[in-house]
Structure formats: C-alpha cells, structure tokens
Write a structure and sequence with these properties.
Blueprint lengths: L5 E10 L7 E8 L3 E5 L6 H8 L6 E4 L2 E4 L2 E2 L5 H7 L4 E4 L3 H4 L6 H12 L4 H14 L5 H5 L8 H13 L5 E5 L7 H18 L2 E5 L3 H7 L2 E6 L2 E7 L9 H8 L19 H7 L1
Helix pairs in contact: 4-5, 4-7, 5-7
Amino acid sequence: MSDILLDVQNLSVRYGNAGSDAVRRVSFTLGRERLGIVGESGSGKSTMGRALMRLLPDARIGADRMDFLGTDLLKLSEAEMLKIRGRQISMILQDPQYSLNPIHRVGDQIAETLLRHFKISKREAREKSLDMLEAVKIREPERVYSLYPHEVSGGMGQRIMIAMMLLADPRIVIADEPTSALDVTVRLSVLKILEDLVRERGIGLIIISHDLNLVRNFCDRVMVMFAGRVVETLAARDLDNASHPYTRGLMAAQPRIGGPRTPLPVLDRSAPWSREIQS
C-alpha cells in the first residue's frame, strides 16, 4: 500500500439546492501512475477533480475517506489546504483565459508558486520559472515572462498553466484537458514532460479528458464516468475491449480514419443500464 498516494472512498458532491449529486459515491485509488478519467460533458469529471483540491466553496463535499499520504483532505482547514494546493497537489485547469489573473504579468504568477511554498529569492524564482517556460516549448521565455495573460494565445496560455503547476514538483497532478489547446508537436512535448514526472519522480497523474485516443495511448488505467458515477475502471490498453455498454458506446461514437462512411451510432439513454445509473 506504500505506492498509494490517494485513496478516495464514496466521494459525493452536490451543488447548492440541486436535487441530485453531481458526483455520486465515487471510489478509487491513485498510485504512481497515469490515471485517465473520461466521460461526456456533465459526467462529473472536472467536478471530482476540483473536489479533490477543495476548490468548490459553494458545493457540499462528502466522503468516507479522501486520504492523501495519510492525511484526510476533508478534515483540513482552509489554511492547511493552502499548504497542499500547488505544493503537494496541483491542478492544470482547462481554460487559461479564466485561470490566469488578468492584472498580473505571466511571469509573476508563475514565480508566485515558488515564492509561496519555498524559501527562495525572487531572482531564483525568476530563473526557475524561465527554465520551466522553456521546458514547455515556449519561445523567447524572457519576453513571455513579462506579458499579461491577454497578450498570449490560447495554446501559449495552456503551456503557461502547465509550467506553473509543475514548478513546485507536486506529488499529484490533476490535469483537466491539459493539451486541448495545443498543436500536435507541443502536445507531444507536454505529454513527454508529464510522463517523465510519473516515471522518474514517482508522481500520481490524473488526466481528465474527452480524448479517448489520448487516454488509451498515454494512460495506464482508465476510469469511465457517467451521470456522476464510475461505471467501469480498466487498463488503458483494454479500452477497446470494454465490457460496459456506456464505454462501448463512447468508443463506437468515435470517428476512425478509414472507417465506414455511415452515421456514427448514438447512445441509447433509455437502455436499462442508463436508467439504473441515473436512479
């Protein structure tokens, strides 16, 4: 069990006065591995990721256990969570347009991670930040360091977010669609950085994605979510042989190069499995 970094049992999340939970009784463990979480929009993937970080102030989060290396995250105060976020567990958010502070320069936001969590000079923080910008394939890192978020493209903003979240060398990284705004070359480079962190530093990586090909080829395990629940967990290499009708439906709805030019199948949401999960 020493390889288990995170142990979550019966996690549920409910927003405000909603009639049902957005995440319902989800249980899983995360080791030093790459865990992919897939499912349609609204299936609870991102909500679960934010719940692990305690980033849902307007939601009710409950679990039998949400254990991170012997610490129950649900029992920590907000001040204690501030020491965990960014340093021990970091989250690469999906849309840098809303995640970066528009009134602060990009470089200052990146360096803040080091200045908050480590005893380090501003000069050292700047140098390490520039090195990380270069590592995520940003050209002219010194120029980009001084820009404001509105002055960078979507793809560059995504790489800035990735650099910011990896800089403190966290134990767990939760990546919500981390490569969605990147071109193919940069995407491969970023995935290589994440893969090296798992293999060389032994971190746990959670990839939240709609891209079935990405999780099949990059992740070790895949967790499939529907209507706030986990319907199936399997090895990524076995995704084509999934047993649950929902997982098979997702795979069938994916266009394939050289495949038949016929309308893609649509999930039957009136099927017994769907009604059972949503009940």
